[in-house]
Amino acid sequence: MPTCNSHAGHPERVDYEYERNGTASVFMFVAPFLNWRRVSVREHRTKRDMAEELERLVMHDFKDAKKVTIILDNLNTHTKGALDTRFEPEYCREILRRCEFVFTPVHGSWLNIAESELSVLTRQCLCGRIGSMDEVRKQAAAWTAWRNDHAKNVHWQFTTDDARIKLDSVYPKFHFDNE
Prior knowledge:
The protein is 34% helix and 17% strand. By secondary structure, the protein is an alpha+beta fold. The strands form three sheets. Strands 1-2 form a two-stranded antiparallel ribbon.
């Protein structure tokens, strides 16, 4: 409920009480060389949610691919075992046979192109308060369709040389006797 305060010589001030209507978990999948992305908005981000999203990615979105490389940060739900929470073991093995998992360094999730796309999604689409989960889904779907239809590509500018410098402290150094 707004409250208004005004004093002589000062503009009227209006204060609104914040009312939280909930949160949404956004799953972002990106195939940068295809200028393709898929955004899935869910009420939770459990291992079961992750399993369903991985299954959709591998068995439906890229059903004809022999191998799907999946780059993940180190979130606790981002595990191969997540599939066991949702699917029978034989089907889990079928999905996993078609997956190659690559994990970003612990403090390097920003290396994941999906993180960049999430940033764009947030700035262009989800930057304000949205009243319902359905509305979040509609806006995310519209954004995704527009980005895919206009073949918006990812402008990745992080080179291998940059990585060697920036990630020097993240990766172990190897020393050889003959050096």
